[in-house]
Each structure stands twice: as C-alpha cells, then as structure tokens.
C-alpha cells in the first residue's frame, strides 16, 4: 500500500490558515489598523487602490519595530502581545494571535517600512508569498507603513471570489468607520483611488460621531451611560423614527474592539420592542467595558466574536440599560411643517422622569406626567405647561389641569365614558383648558414648547395594552359582571382557541364558562370594555388574535394584550369630554412608553413653538 497521508508543505499550510484571517481586502485593512492601534499610533492613514485589490497601505506613527522584530513579525505565531496562557485569559490588545502579518504575506506582495523612535534608520522589508525578497536599511518616519499589493495573486480562486469593487470598498469603509468611532483620539485619513473619503481630526467621541454621521443623524441620538458591577455601557441610541431597514448601522464595541455579537445586538433590539415597525432596525453605538478575564475573544481567527462568561447577565444588563435610556428621553417625533423634513429635538418638555421607569404606573397616584417649569406655574390656570403627578409639592399648583389628588387618575377612561353614556348626559365641559378634540379623533394640547397632538385611539391602545400586560404579571383583572350572561356560539376553531386561551382571557378580565358544543357563556367582561361593546368584544379579540398570529406574533400574552387593546380602545370618531381627554393624557403619560403604540405607530407628535413662529414670520 502506498501512503495516503502527507504533512502539508509550510507554504500550503500557510495559505490555508491565511484563508481564515484574510478573506477579503477589508480583512487586511482591519488587521493592519488593529496593529497600528496596538502600536499606540495617534495618526493612521488607510490608502486603497481598486477597492484594495490592487493596493492597501496603512501608515501609522506608532512605536515601530526594530530590524529583528520586523523580520520576525511575518513569521506565524509571532507576537509581542502575549507571552503565556495567563495572558491569553486577559487580552487587552486588539491582536494576540500572531498570525495576521504571516497570513497577509502568504497571499500577497508586502512591503514594510518601520522605524522605532530610538533608531536613526528604519528597516525595509519586501516579502512575497512568505519569502523575504529584500531586507535593507531605509530612511523613514517613526512608525510603520505596510503596503499590501495584489492580494490573492497566488490564490486565483480566492481572487475570483471577491465581490464587486463597490462591495469590497464598502467593506473597507465599514472597517475604517468602526475603528474611527472606537478611537476618536486617533487622527484618521482614508483615501480611495486618490480621493480622500475621510479626514478626521482628533476629537471627543461626540464630535467624531457628528463628523461621521452628520448633524441630522447626530441630533436624533440619545446619549446613554451606565456603570454597573459586571460591565459598564455607554453610547448613543437612535430614536425610533430614525430606524433603518437593515442592521448595518449597529455598532457594538467591547473593550475597544468592534464585535459582532448576536447577544448584545438582540438585547439592544429587544429594548426597542414595540417602538419600531416590523422590518426596521434601530441605529445604535454601544461601548461595553468588561473585565477582560470575563470574556473570551479567542473564538474565531477574526477576533470579532466573543464569548461572555455570564451571557444571560450581559443580555439583561444591556436590555434594561437601553430600555431605561429610551424611556427617560423624549422620543416624540416633532414636526417641522415641511414635507419630508421631520426633525427631532432634544428639548425636555416631555421627558419622563427616571423614577417613572420602575414605578408601576397604572393607578397613577405617583405617575409622572410632563413637567412644568416653575416660571410657567402662574399660567397654569390658562393651561400652559404640563402635569407632573409625582413631585412632592402642592400638586394642584403644578398641573396643567389642576385637580384634587386622585380625582381623575383612579378612574379609567372607559369607566368615565360608560358613566356618561349611562347617564345620557355630557359631563360638563371644563372651560378654559388648553385641550381640544378635533374631528373626534385627535387631541390637541398646549405644552411648554409648543403644541402636542395625540391620536386618541392609539393612546388608549397603549394604556390598555400595558394594563393587560400588568394583569398578566399580577393577575389582578378588573371584571365587570354582566347582569345577563351572554351565551355565545362560536365557530369550532374559535371555541378551541378560547379553550386554549381561557386562563389568559380570565387574566385580561373575561369571566367565561365553556359549555361544550362550541358554546361559551360570558359572565363578565374586562372593566375597560365600553358599554354597547359587550356582545362583540370576545369575538373581536379572537379575530384580532388570529390575524396577529398569522402575522407571526407568537407570544400568547403579548398577542392577547395587543388584540384586546386594539379592540377595546376608544376609536376615531368617539367624542370625548374635556375631563375624559385629561384622563386619557394623564394615563398615557403614566405608561412606560407613551410615544408609540404597541404596533409601532406614533401616539404623539409635537409642533414646536419656534416652528410656528417661523411659519408666521415671527423670527
Ligand atoms: P498580533 O497583532 O496578533 O501580535 P500580527 O501578525 O498582526 O500579530 O503582528 C505581529 C507583531 O508585529 C505584533 O505583535 C507587533 O509586535 C508587530 N507589529 C505588527 N504591526 C505593527 C505596527 N504597525 N507597529 C508596530 N509593531 C507592529
Ligand atoms: Mg495583529
């Protein structure tokens, strides 16, 4: 028998290993840039020709290398960054595997010039497919310049796999942008085919982001920062109405390294739940700092994947930190009255107080509403400003709608409407309040910074949705018993759905008995159901539930909460009295997320006073 097993030649072995590190020009850029950052550079230039296929050059002003180190650097497993297994367990540099330069040299023609500050002359090395072709002294600046030409010249199959020029260039740009975000203290220059694409001066992080993404985008960002025991997290979150169609603009950095982490991305995405319409994704930039001992970055040769020691903790922390940041900021879209130019403003008129976040806000004796500045309090009677229920002062003085404690908040909107309908009377309108209903559909109210417009249906939907979710947690449904129980005959499939959902329906507030033969006896309905709607509500909720289910909504409780909220909420066309509008707004601001309905539609929009002033030529 002849032998079948051979040891691969070093040349072949290197080419195979290179494939994991160097997949495309962008991977070369990434590895070289990481080396420059590790070398302490404060200036890095990236120059590419033909999207990196012809040439990639990275020049830095970092610490440089001695002649011996320069020759050594291209050997496989040659690194100055770790020495022992213990070092591997606490990586503080971007590189550590000692294979990038070797891998790059295996598949291209490389020329390196490098000089340390302590040396008078530098070193020039020319390497081609692993072989040192030239080694000489040269005059050069302190730092390192590496030119990589004709990538994959000796592995044609790989070269043929490269995508279009445009795609490869975009990949390179992504790499440069990611590191430019992560290292604002470094000056970056990025040139493609002699065109300067980026020229970034040393900046603070905010200004770097402004430079990279522009003013409009920057102004739509919410800044966040939290220091926690297991990690600290800071960054910028895009407001929901600046959501993207893809996930490309989600930047997660861990200890200064750009990473792809399903875990972190999902946690952040989850925090935007219900704020975004299906198919859109939030923009965010998150910096996580964790004790390097508690992570493993040696998962993949590209070092962009990470394992966390405690995954579920990390998930929870990211989720709640992002949620908190979103909830404590004004994410209400504010309109400028020009087509297609919605802008965001950072004014804090409607910013929820942080305490509001954790409070259970339904029976809103402590619910946060929008704040009214001291100087505006005198004008309260005229209705300027907003209410805040949670502050420790004489509340009747602080509210947009002065009231006795608990006067409205304990009562649900539905109860109020039901009372009015039963009594066949209009509740007496409270004169002089800065709140109006228009077209029986929208509520307009004066706020400190201008006017706000609320869509009454989605507002009520949000209130009911959260109330039902709360019922699921605390199982405290409010049921109104029906004087005459309704016997309802259902379609067999609906009957089995009721059977399946019975426990949850009861938590929502339905009291029902299954009678067999597709018959259900409805003895009570949730307190939030409006008079006249009793017979239909169960069927409506079931129908909506099925629609959502087909739409891919799989969580039973969430679906039921959404379906009920949608069907039980007041509709466009329902006339409201002033006090009902007040209850609605109060309860809306007592919810966790008053700005967006459970399906992602906006609930409130603002028109800033400046916008009106501008329109009327008052500026
Ligand atoms: P790693 O970065 O994992 O250590 P590399 O193959 O990327 O491995 O680089 C090998 C070594 O070459 C590095 O450990 C570092 O000592 C040296 N080196 C590479 N690039 C530079 C640079 N731009 N400036 C200074 N030293 C460098
Ligand atoms: Mg490296």
Major sheet, described briefly? 8 strands, mixed
**Percent helix among the residues?**
25-40%
What is the CATH topology of the largest domain? Heat Shock Protein 90
Cross-sheet strand order for the largest sheet: 5-4-3-6-2-1-7-8
Query: What structural class results from the helix and strand content?
Result: alpha+beta
Secondary structure: number of strands: 22
Which CATH class of the largest domain is shown?
A: Alpha Beta
For the record, give the distance between the C-alpha atoms at the N and C termini, rounded to a whole number.
Answer: 94 Å
Ligand list: adenosine-5'-diphosphate, magnesium ion
Short description:
This protein is 35% helix and 21% strand. It is of the alpha+beta class. The protein has four domains: 10-200, Histidine kinase-like ATPase, C-terminal domain (Heat Shock Protein 90, 2-Layer Sandwich); 211-327, Ribosomal Protein S5, domain 2, CATH 3.30.230; 342-459 and 575-593 and 603-615, no CATH class; 471-568, Ribosomal Protein S8, Chain: A, domain 1 (2-Layer Sandwich), CATH 3.30.1370.
Characteristics:
about 625 residues, alpha+beta, Heat Shock Protein 90, Ribosomal Protein S5, domain 2, 4 domains, 8-stranded mixed β-sheet, 22 strands, about 35% helix, binds adenosine-5'-diphosphate, binds magnesium ion
Ordered list of secondary-structure elements with their pairings:
Layout: H1 10-21, H2 25-38, E1 43-49, E2 55-60, H3 67-73, H4 85-88, H5 100-106, E3 109-115, E4 122-128, E5 131-138, E6 143-149, H6 156-161, H7 165-182, E7 187-192, E8 195-200, H8 205-213, H9 215-219, E9 221-227, E10 232-238, E11 250-254, E12 257-258, H10 262-271, E13 284-289, E14 295-296, E15 307-308, H11 311-327, H12 354-358, H13 395-398, H14 413-423, E16 435-438, E17 442-447, E18 450-455, H15 456-474, E19 479-489, H16 492-508, E20 511-516, E21 519-526, H17 534-550, H18 556-568, H19 578-589, E22 604-608, H20 609-615
Parallel strand pairs: 1-7, 11-13
Antiparallel strand pairs: 1-2, 2-6, 3-4, 3-6, 4-5, 7-8, 9-10, 10-13, 11-12, 14-15, 16-17, 17-18, 18-22, 19-21, 20-21
Adenosine-5'-diphosphate (ADP) is lined by residues 31, 35-36, 39, 60, 62-65, 73, 78-81, 95-102, 144.
């Amino acid at each position: 028998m002849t032998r079948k097993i051979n040891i691969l030649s070093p040349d072949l072995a290197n080419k195979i290993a290179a494939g994991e590190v160097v997949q495309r020009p962008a991977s070369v850029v990434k590895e070289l840039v990481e080396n420059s950052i590790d070398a302490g550079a404060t200036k890095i230039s990236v120059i590419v020709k033909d999207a990196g296929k012809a040439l990639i050059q990275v020049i830095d002003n970092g610490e440089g290398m001695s002649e011996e180190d320069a020759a050594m650097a291209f050997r496989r497993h040659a690194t100055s960054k770790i020495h022992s297994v213990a070092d591997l367990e606490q990586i503080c540099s971007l590189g550590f595997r000692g294979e990038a330069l070797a891998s790059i040299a295996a598949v291209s023609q490389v020329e390196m010039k490098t000089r340390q500050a302590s040396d008078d002359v530098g070193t020039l090395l020319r390497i081609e497919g692993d072989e040192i072709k030239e080694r000489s002294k040269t005059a050069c600046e302190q730092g390192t310049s590496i030119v990589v030409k004709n990538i994959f010249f000796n592995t044609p199959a790989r070269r043929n796999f490269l995508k279009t020029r445009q795609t490869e260039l975009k990949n390179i740009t992504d790499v440069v942008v990611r590191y430019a975000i992560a290292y604002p203290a470094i000056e970056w220059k990025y040139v493609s085919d002699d065109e300067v694409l980026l020229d970034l001066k040393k900046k603070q992080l905010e200004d770097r982001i402004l430079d990279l993404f522009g003013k409009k985008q920057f102004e739509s960002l919410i800044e966040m920062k939290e220091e926690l025991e297991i990690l600290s997290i800071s960054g910028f979150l895009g407001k929901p109405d600046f959501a993207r169609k893809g996930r490309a603009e989600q930047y997660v950095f861990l200890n200064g390294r750009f990473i792809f982490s399903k875990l972190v991305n999902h946690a952040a995405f989850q925090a935007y739940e219900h704020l975004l319409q299906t198919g859109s994704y939030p923009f965010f930039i998150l910096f996580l700092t964790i004790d390097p001992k508690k992570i493993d970055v040696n998962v993949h040769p590209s070092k962009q994947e990470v394992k966390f020691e405690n995954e579920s903790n990390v998930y929870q922390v990211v989720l709640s930190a992002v949620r908190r940041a979103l909830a404590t900021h004004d994410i209400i879209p504010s309109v400028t009255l020009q087509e297609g130019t919605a802008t965001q403003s950072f004014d804090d008129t409607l910013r929820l107080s942080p305490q509001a976040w954790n409070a259970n806000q339904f029976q809103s004796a402590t619910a946060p509403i929008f704040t009214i500045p001291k100087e505006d309090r005198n004008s309260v009677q005229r209705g300027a400003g907003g209410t805040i229920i949670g502050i420790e002062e004489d509340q009747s003085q602080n509210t947009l709608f002065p009231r006795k404690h608990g006067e409205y908040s304990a009562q649900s909107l539905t109860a109020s409407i039901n009372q009015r309908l039963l009594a066949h009377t209009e509740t007496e309108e409270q004169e002089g309040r800065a709140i109006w209903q228009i077209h029986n559909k929208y509520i307009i109210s004066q706020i400190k910074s201008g006017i706000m417009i609320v869509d009454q249906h989605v507002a009520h939907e949000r209130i009911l949705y959260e109330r039902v979710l709360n019922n699921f947690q605390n199982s405290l449904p409010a049921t109104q018993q029906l004087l005459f129980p309704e016997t309802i005959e259902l379609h067999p499939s609906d009957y089995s759905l009721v059977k399946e959902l019975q426990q949850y329906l009861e938590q929502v507030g339905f009291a029902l008995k299954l009678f067999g033969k597709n018959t259900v006896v409805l003895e009570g309905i949730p307190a939030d159901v409006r008079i006249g709607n009793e017979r239909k509500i169960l069927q409506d909720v079931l129908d909506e539930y099925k629609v959502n289910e087909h739409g891919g909504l799989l969580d039973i409780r969430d679906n039921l909460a959404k379906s009920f909220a949608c069907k039980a909420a007041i509709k466009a066309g329902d006339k409201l009295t002033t006090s009902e509008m007040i209850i609605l707004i109060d309860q809306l601001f007592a919810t966790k997320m008053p700005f967006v309905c459970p399906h992602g539609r906006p609930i409130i929009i603002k028109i800033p006073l400046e916008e009106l002033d501008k329109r009327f030529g008052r500026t």
